[in-house]
Amino acid sequence: MRYKFIISVLFAVLLGAFVGNFLFNKYKEEQLVFQSEEDSIYFLEEGVYDNKERAENATSNIDAKIIVKEDAKYYVYLAITDDDINLEKLNTMYDELEINATVKEMKVSDESFLSTLEQMDGLMNSATKNDEILAINKVVLATYEEMVLNN
């Protein structure tokens, strides 16, 4: 009688540990997948320069841009978006202006900026003229500079 009780308790403890470990691992996997999908966005990069003056001089004809210092280099970003359709619109617009840009995928963790970007991407989806696209893009760049870079 005593052995049956001990074996039952031991079995219940082992079963509980196994199920608990399984559920905890599933939770961790889902949380990691959710976080990595949420914060990856596209930047259109014009170029990389050794100093800020060169970056400003080389892009003096471009109105909508931000210059960001990263790893002792100055990167000129022309646009930021999270939407593939908007990325194509922006690429086409800059191609028409004969400005070469490359797509760079980066992660941003500022939730308020990502929320604003989502709203701006919605507006840009309905924009049809380059002037409209450029105006929305200026707002996105200014918001990124204010919310992410200046914090």
Can you give keywords for this protein?
single chain, 151 residues, alpha+beta, 4 strands, 62% helix
Q: Provide the helix percentage.
A: 55-70%
Overall form: elongated
- Beta-strand content bin: 15-25%
Oligomer: single chain
Mean pLDDT: 86
Radius of gyration, rounded? Answer: 25 Å
* Total DSSP helices: 5
Task: Compute the number of strand runs.
Answer: 4
Distance between the termini: 67 Å
How do the SSEs run, as a string of H and E?
Answer: HEHEEHEHH
Strand order of the largest sheet: 2-3-1-4
Strand count, sense and closure of the main sheet?
4 strands, antiparallel
Tell me the structural class. Answer: alpha+beta
Unreliable segments of 5+ consecutive residues: 33-38
Would you mind describing this structure in some detail?
- By secondary structure, this protein is of the alpha+beta class.
- It is built from five helices and four strands, in the order αβαββαβαα.
- The chain has a four-stranded antiparallel beta sheet.
- A hairpin with a 2-residue loop joins strand 2 (66-70) and strand 3 (73-81).
- Helix 4 runs antiparallel to helix 5 (130-149).
